Predict the 3D structure of the following.
Amino acid sequence: MRRISLSRFLIEEQRNKNVISSDLRLLIEVVARACKAISIAIGKGSLAGVLGSAGSDNVQGEVQKKLDVISNEILLEANEWGGHLAAMASEEMEFPHAIPNRYPKGEYLLLFDPLDGSSNIDVNVSVGTIFSVLQCPEGMEPDEQAFLQPGSRQVCAGYAVYGPTTLLVLTIGDGVHVFTLDRELGSFVLSQENVRIPEETREFAINASNARYWEPPVKRYVDELLAGKEGPRGEDFNMRWVASMVADVHRIMSRGGIFMYPLDSKTVKQGGKLRLLYEANPMAFIVEQAGGAATDGRRRILDVVPERLHQRIPVILGSKNEVERATAYHSD
Ligand code: AHG
Ligand code: MN
Ligand code: MN
């Protein structure tokens, strides 16, 4: 079998298709290396004393796990010195992280959810890292304002999923490609090119314990799925909810499905549960690049112009036909 490492894949993308710059290639390699380090830290678990709470809250008002803090540090340190970045922003930090003056600066902005699904970490269920890359607008300081670009401007997005195997799923606007970590060699190897999400699906993902808070269109959509063969859809649907967005989205990338964290009366004040810049945008870019769709129930996620770094948004994404149906119910 011909093995194509992430490095070789990126060099060939640069050389043959001219779709990435040297700096973007470096950025992706550095993020991949950081994900490897996070994967190793997670893998050691209690042996390295990395499980449990860090005893602090983040800017979102959520309790930080030790591994939230460790993963954030790993990504910051890995990306500071390469000269490819103008600044970084993270779900775990209130303000953008400037590149220290002792290092050269580049044109890219890196955004990340260092550890997604961290409530699952102590019960040994898959977690992940989500990242998004923008260009710093010309002549603009890389402060909060520079990050407030619609998701359609992303030049790259990806996620790592730390499951039975560690995978890196990547788009540079040229389809979606999956790399599997070879733990012995310590390198990511291309394992699937041009992933396509099936348009039709019989599987859905939503936290059903929030049902009493849902808006009528979401309730209608889910009720119809639950009614199965005897209902208006005339078919049975299966339900899955990992509670790590990365793992739920990866299942959809693999075999189709719809993922929803809709607006509900519990999260309406903050605009939704998931974060636009660190979760919704990168996942929407990846899902669209794989032939799927992503909306907030009313708008295409990638068209939303952010107003705040830590803005939240409702999310409906996955197989195209189901996302379109659930979205259409919102305007009925
Ligand atoms: P994070 O761990 O980065 O805060 O994200 C958790 C998110 C997302 O991964 C998941 O889909 C959702 O929260 C789970 O929410 P519930 O606990 O409401 O099921
Ligand atoms: Mn998350
Ligand atoms: Mn997180």
